[in-house]
């Protein structure tokens, strides 16, 4: 008898709650716009996903608080578990079940490409804040990104090396097993020779190698005045160490693969001088945009300093919100049009515009290592 | 010419490391006719012991070297007792496969215990560089070469001049006859594993200091190349392993320097194939008739 009463009460409560939620959802639909966040919140690149999400959330919070938005924008966030199949599933779920008008994420290129194909076929715009692989935006007109592509880094460094470091005889020492490194080398070489410099040596290594003295000896004999080393920090750290031990004191340069806190342990701080690499952003950039972002981020996340991924997440979030605000009425098609038409967008590193392939033409920062510490050197406009 | 000499100098330190590992292969083969494939992993363990004694216990170079060698030789003896001794009279293929199994066991236990993440070694040796007629020689290169030469001379003395060495040579020549002469074959075999493994442990520490990076799978490639070096010099012949190791190191350095580093490993194994085709007994080997 008693249990029956409880059951009935429970049923009534459940029905009432569902009813209230449904009403709120329907009612809310008129007031707010839903966007889907598809991020790597768990799994092997979880730290990337969480950083990026924090940046997106900050952008959203600021936009909603500013009062400039016609309608409130809310984020429906899901976890793709750093899994390529799950990234596509989550994109479908967000569009079909949660009825979002646009997607933001995923972080890494492989997952972004998988989700991007879904977005393109469902005709919902998607922006990955961070995926640098050129293939991503080749999927179609509904797929965007908020960061520069790998090729650009190579060009920026060539320009910096020629004009700022005064290098004329560059050597390249690249990871022969990585598309990223090969891409960077190719564009570095192209730009550097166009500017009038010479590539005096081009040497390869494989990920996992520990002995680089033969290649460095060859480079030294070719009288290189700068060595471009695209690749990742494990090998770059050893190369820097061995080069300095051999008395090769010319500048060493590369791409964002140098950006790791492990580097100091591998190379030793005293071997990390005269090293310059391209990156997306630096918290030490003293431009007002960057500094106000860093301050706001620190305030929201207990003093945590935003990394490059958080900065790109913030940028991606703002780009999307801006496009939503410019779309009238707010439909996926109109958001896509507004995003493609983005011009002179006030980003962290200055104003930027999308090129015809929906890749932003944006500035890169050059970071210098001084005794292993990252020092912001300069911003390079495209 | 200068570049050529510089590449030779680069190759010498790597070559002396190969030589130290190759000695263990060749000694064990000389005594029990076994290619101990776990030998490269003993080298890796030596590097890890060195890492923990210097990073965690903050010992200096010499105590770390002694501890690495001691632990590696203990591990070598334990492996021999547990894995190889019960199979001493089994077909040779059984013991060879066991060796491969032991190798995997050590590698993946280390990955399980310490993760596959590479580790950075602390700086143990001074970082000078000498300029000599346009050539650059680092203090570390000299140190590695020096330690390797001292260890090899010590081994030569041990094998040629001591009673244990005499026993080793006797067992290597004819195990049964040696046993009949009152030599304790089991302890000679253990002793051989202990000495060979200690040299591998020393090589592990030297490589850790020199390249500053160690990981649980670091023993695979140097282990294989040291095996090639042992075959190149003539397997079972101690001076052959030294010569073979140095040749391998210098050849790799020259290939990386004058052709391309991507051919480096290919050349190492091409040397093995050529030696097996042209002179299977190795550079210093004599033709011998297999005793039946």
Overview of this structure, please?
The complex is a heterodimer of chains A (382) and B (292). Chain A has 12 helices and 15 strands. Chain A has 382 residues and is α/β, with parallel strands linked by helices. Chain A has 2 domains: 31-148 and 288-348, Response regulator (Rossmann fold, 3-Layer(aba) Sandwich); 151-279 and 365-380, Response regulator (Rossmann fold). In chain A, strands 7-6-8-9-10-14-15 form a 7-stranded mixed beta sheet, sandwiched between helices. In chain A, helix 2 crosses helix 11. Chain A is elongated and about 90 Å long. In chain A, 52% of the residues are buried. The mean pLDDT of chain A is 88. By secondary structure, chain B is mainly alpha-helical. Chain B has a domain at 16-117 and 137-220. A two-stranded antiparallel sheet of chain B has the order 1-4. In chain B, helix 1 runs antiparallel to helix 8 and helix 10 packs across helix 11. Classes of the chains: A alpha/beta (382), B mainly alpha (292). Chain A binds chain B through residues 176, 203-206, 209-211, 213-215, 217-218, 221, 234, 237-238, 241, 245-247, 262, 265-266, 268, and chain B through 2-3, 6-7, 10-11, 14, 118, 120, 123, 127, 129, 131, 136, 138, 140, 207, 211-213, 218, 252-258, 260-262.
Strand content of chain B: under 5%
In the predicted model, the low-confidence regions of chain A spanning at least 5 consecutive residues are none
Distance between the termini of chain A: 77 Å
Secondary-structure element pattern of chain A, one letter each? HEHEHEHEEHEHEHEHEHEHHHEEEEE
Distance between the first and last residues' Cα of chain B: 51 Å
């Amino acid at each position: 008898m008693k249990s029956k009463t409880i059951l009935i009460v429970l049923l009534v409560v459940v029905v009432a709650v569902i009813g209230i939620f449904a009403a709120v959802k329907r009612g809310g639909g008129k007031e707010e716009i839903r966007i889907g966040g598809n991020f790597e919140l768990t799994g092997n690149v979880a730290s990337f996903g969480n950083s990026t999400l924090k940046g997106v959330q900050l952008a959203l919070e600021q936009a909603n608080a500013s009062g400039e938005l016609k309608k409130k924008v809310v984020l429906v966030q899901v976890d793709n578990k750093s899994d390529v199949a799950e990234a596509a599933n989550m994109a479908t779920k967000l569009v079909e079940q949660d009825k979002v008008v646009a997607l933001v994420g995923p972080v890494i290129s492989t997952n972004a490409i998988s989700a991007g194909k879904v977005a393109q076929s469902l005709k919902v715009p998607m922006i990955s804040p961070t995926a640098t692989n050129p293939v991503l935006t080749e999927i179609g007109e509904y797929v965007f990104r908020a960061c520069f592509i790998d090729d650009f880094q190579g060009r920026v460094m060539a320009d910096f090396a020629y004009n700022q470091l005064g290098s004329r005889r560059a050597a390249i020492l690249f990871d022969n097993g990585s598309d990223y490194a090969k891409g960077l080398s190719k564009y570095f070489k192209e730009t550097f020779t166009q500017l009038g410099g010479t590539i005096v040596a081009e040497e390869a290594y494989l990920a996992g190698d520990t002995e680089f003295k033969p290649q460095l000896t060859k480079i030294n004999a070719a009288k290189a005045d700068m060595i471009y080393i695209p690749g990742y920090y494990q090998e770059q750290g050893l190369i820097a160490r061995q080069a300095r031990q051999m008395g090769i004191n010319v500048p060493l340069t590369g791409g964002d693969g140098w950006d790791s806190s492990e580097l100091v342990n591998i190379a030793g701080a005293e071997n990390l001088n005269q090293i310059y690499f391209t990156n997306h952003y630096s918290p030490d950039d003293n431009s007002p945009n960057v500094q106000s972002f860093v301050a706001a981020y620190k305030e929201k996340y207990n003093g945590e300093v935003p990394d490059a991924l958080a900065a790109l997440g913030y940028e991606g979030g703002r780009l999307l919100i801006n496009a939503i605000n410019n779309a009238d009425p707010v439909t996926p098609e109109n958001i896509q049009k507004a995003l493609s038409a983005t011009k002179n967008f006030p980003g962290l590193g200055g104003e930027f515009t999308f090129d015809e392939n929906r890749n932003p033409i944006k500035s890169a920062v050059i970071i210098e290592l001084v005794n292993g510490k990252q020092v912001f050197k300069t911003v390079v406009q495209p | 010419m200068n570049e050529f000499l510089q590449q030779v100098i680069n190759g010498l330190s790597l070559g002396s490391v190969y030589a130290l590992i190759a000695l263990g292969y060749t000694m064990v083969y000389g005594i029990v006719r076994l290619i101990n494939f776990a030998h490269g992993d003993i080298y890796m363990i030596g590097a890890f012991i060195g890492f923990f004694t210097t990073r965690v216990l903050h010992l200096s170079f010499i105590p770390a070297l002694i501890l690495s060698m001691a632990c590696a030789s203990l591990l070598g003896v334990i492996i021999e007792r547990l894995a190889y001794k019960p199979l001493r009279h089994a077909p040779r293929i059984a013991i060879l496969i066991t060796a491969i199994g032991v190798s995997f066991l050590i590698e993946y236990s280390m990955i399980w215990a310490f993760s596959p993440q590479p580790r950075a070694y602390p700086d143990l040796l001074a970082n000078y560089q000498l300029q000599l007629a346009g050539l650059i020689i680092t203090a570390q290169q000299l140190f590695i070469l020096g330690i390797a030469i001292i260890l090899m001379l010590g081994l030569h003395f041990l094998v040629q001049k001591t009673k244990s060495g005499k026993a080793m040579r006797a067992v290597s020549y004819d195990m049964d006859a040696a046993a009949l002469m009152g030599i304790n074959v089991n302890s000679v075999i253990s002793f051989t594993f202990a000495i060979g493994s200690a040299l591998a442990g020393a090589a592990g520490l030297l490589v850790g200091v020199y390249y500053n990076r160690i990981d649980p799978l670091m023993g695979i490639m140097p282990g294989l190349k040291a095996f090639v070096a042992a075959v190149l010099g003539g397997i079972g012949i101690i001076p052959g392993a030294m010569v073979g190791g140095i040749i391998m190191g210098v050849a790799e350095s020259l290939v990386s320097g004058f052709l391309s580093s991507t051919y480096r490993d290919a050349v190492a194994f091409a040397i093995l194939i050529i030696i097996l085709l042209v002179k299977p007994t190795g550079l210093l080997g004599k033709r011998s008739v297999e005793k039946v």
